[in-house]
TrEMBL record:
Pfam families in the cross-refs: Pribosyltran
Cofactor(s), by name: Mg(2+)
Membrane topology: Peripheral membrane protein
EC number, UniProt record: 2.4.2.22
Pathway(s): Purine metabolism; XMP biosynthesis via salvage pathway; XMP from xanthine: step 1/1; Purine metabolism; GMP biosynthesis via salvage pathway; GMP from guanine: step 1/1
Assembly and oligomerization: Homotetramer.
UniProt main location, coarse: membrane
Binding site for Mg(2+): 92
Phosphoribosyltransferase domain location: 9-148
Protein name per UniProt: Xanthine-guanine phosphoribosyltransferase
């Protein structure tokens, strides 16, 4: 269980996804992007736009129910991407690496990129932008909303 949170705004996500696109420019060209749904969908859309790539495939692995981990299941395979050679594989983050190991086994030839990476799974990723400590839970903008917090002196939550 995470004991810290790292909140990512839409602006920050867009900036970080574009930073990843810059890093990927000289790794391509790619014939298509495979998004690991659902978290990889928005990062993949931003990166595909920046790399001028129009072909998007998806792979879906269900691993988590909120913050608890269950038994991973591939519920949608990446049919158009062969063994991944020439394709860019995108997810929002790697944490334990469970999802990454499953998808890499399906697409061993793909270049695997994530925006955020925690240390346990960093070696599984070919390109990433920001490392976040293992005990930090990343809060993405699609999972959160803006709300009132009390002042720090009255028990307000300290940001990560
Ligand atoms: O390295 P791991 O420990 O496998 O964790 C990383 C995965 O967990 C999250 O997806 P999740 O399974 O929550 O599904 P979602 O993308 O549909 O939200 C995240 O988007 C990664 O795909
Ligand atoms: O929103 C999320 N934030 C995380 O830090 C994380 N780790 C695994 N799955 C995750 N989902
Ligand atoms: Mg995911």
């Amino acid at each position: 269980m995470a004991n810290r949170y790292f909140t990512v705004s839409w602006d920050q996500l867009h900036r970080d996804a574009r930073a990843l696109a810059w890093r990927l420019l000289d790794k391509g060209p790619f014939q298509g992007v495979v998004a690991i749904t659902r978290g990889g969908l928005i990062p993949a859309a931003i990166i595909a736009r920046e790399l001028d790539c129009r072909v998007i495939e998806t792979v879906s692995v269900v691993t988590y129910d909120e913050e608890s981990m269950g038994k991973p299941q591939v519920v949608k395979a990446p049919v158009a991407a062969g063994d991944g050679t020439g394709w860019l594989l995108i997810d929002d983050l790697v944490d334990t690496g469970t999802t990454a190991k499953i998808v890499r086994a399906l697409l061993p030839g793909a270049h695997f990129a994530t925006i955020y990476a925690k240390p346990a799974a960093k070696p599984l990723v070919d390109s990433f932008v920001t490392e976040v400590s293992q005990d930090t839970w990343i809060l993405f903008p699609w999972d959160t909303e803006v709300q009132f917090v009390p002042p720090i002196a009255k028990g307000g939550v300290t940001p990560a």
